[in-house]
Structures are given as structure tokens and as C-alpha cells.
Amino acid sequence: MIRHALITGGSRGIGLAIARLLAKNSYRITLVSRTESHLQSALSTLPDPISPGTNSSRPTSPHSDSASVTPSPHKYVVGSVTSGMFWNKHILGSSLRHEVVDVMVNCAGIGQNSLLVRTTVEDIDKIVDTNLTSMLHGIRYLVKKRHIRRSDFGDRGKVGREAEFTPCIINIASLLGVKGGRGAVAYVASKAGVLGLTRALAAELGPQSIRVNAIVPGYIETDMTADIERTSLLSKIPLRRFGTPDEIAQAALFLATNQYANNCVINLDGGLSAT
């Protein structure tokens, strides 16, 4: 069965790696990001989830202000997740129409490299809005408008392959949200909030058969870590290397498919949290 995954921040890095792996495992993907050129490039790299020999009319096409026709079963939505206008029927809603989202991955995020007193009010708001507030708005919208499938756990007694598939929300947090970090107060606060959001929603949405989980990456090879001075940092990581986006994607696939994973927080930091 082809399922549907909505991924914010899905045009590159961890979000794109998750999109590719889910597509390989029979998911149709909707990518969300601010830059259309990045989305178009990302979309072209997603494998077709349709099994060989399966007939499909492929009715969907990328949605944007200047949508182009494509045979891909995947699509994208251009917009800023921090915008109050994005999470409404005019932008995201018009793209989803009557679609159901089986997996929502909240991966949109920005970093910080400045002491709090040197960080502008505008930058603080931007960091918290992107990394945390946008998740609140997005999850609220999808659940309220019933784009995320809900049920009454009619098959709660079944296990393994017999268990009913339950939708899953996966929030990307950060090791800094647990350990803290100098020069990233707003970022740390926002990522700690993501873990609190995950715990609260796991309890609130669980009875509606919606699972909520989080991944806590350490230092990962992405654009966000490209300019980090690594010599001393690598000496603190027991595995002596940064992780890869593909390794984070493997955790996302586990959370999407394991039907008992709710309030499951997966730590992937090469052992840095143990030091």
C-alpha cells in the first residue's frame, strides 16, 4: 500500500534523506520548503514508490504558484511554515485537498551562533518560530482538519503484521536541546521545547491513534554544521565522526513503521551525550 508522508524542511539535508528513504519504502512524498528551486531539485531525486508493474494514473503534481506538470507521484508545496497564512486552506489546504497524511515529519529548522545578548529580537523570534512554533501550528492544522487519519484503536489487540497502521508525527529535535550549548540559547530553548511538545502530544493524541515521536540528532553532516570547527569537537564524540542524514532517516523509518512507538525519543549522536 502506498502511504503519504508530509515533510517540512524536506528540500535538503536530513529532511531530504528522510524523504528518499520513505519513498523507497512505498511512501508518496509531499515536500514543504520556502525555495521552489530547491524543492524542484529535491523532488527529482525521489524514487518512485509505485512497485514495478503497478498501474497508476498519478493524479498529483507539484503545487506552487507556478506548478509544473510532472509524472512523479510526489509533490511539493512552497511556503514558510512560520507564516500564519501557510497553515490554512488557501496554501497547504488547497494542496492537500481531501488527502490523508500517514506520516508528518517536522524537520524545518534554523541554527544559531551568537550569545543571547548579541542576538537580535528578530532573530530570536525567527529561531523559535521556525524550530518550535511552526510545529504547533502545523500539527494543530492537520489534526483539526482531519488530514491526519484518526481511529478508535479497533485493532488494539493485534500485534505485528496484524496491527492496524497508525499515523505518526516525527519531530526533529537536537542534542543541544538536552545538553545545552554556549552561543545557541534560542536554538537550545526551541529544541528543548520540541521534546516537551512530543511528550505532551503523545499523551494527548495517542487515544486518537496518532503516535508522536522525536529524533534527537547530534552533529550531522549538513549545511548547518558545515562551518563548525571540528578538531576539538570530534575528540569529544566517542565514534570520532559526525553522523549522516541517511542515519537519521533510518530512525525516522523505524518510528513510522513500529506501531507501538509513541513518545519514543531516539538519540543519535555517536555517543556524545554519554561524555
TrEMBL record:
One Pfam family matching this protein: adh_short_C2
SUPFAM superfamilies for this protein: NAD(P)-binding Rossmann-fold domains (SSF51735)
Lineage: superkingdom: Eukaryota
Record's keyword annotation contains NADP: yes
Listed PROSITE patterns: ADH_SHORT
Annotated GO biological process: fatty acid biosynthetic process
Gene3D superfamilies xrefs: NAD(P)-binding Rossmann-like Domain
Family stated for the protein in its record: Belongs to the short-chain dehydrogenases/reductases (SDR) family.
Name of the featured protein: NAD(P)-binding protein
Organism: Zopfia rhizophila CBS 207.26
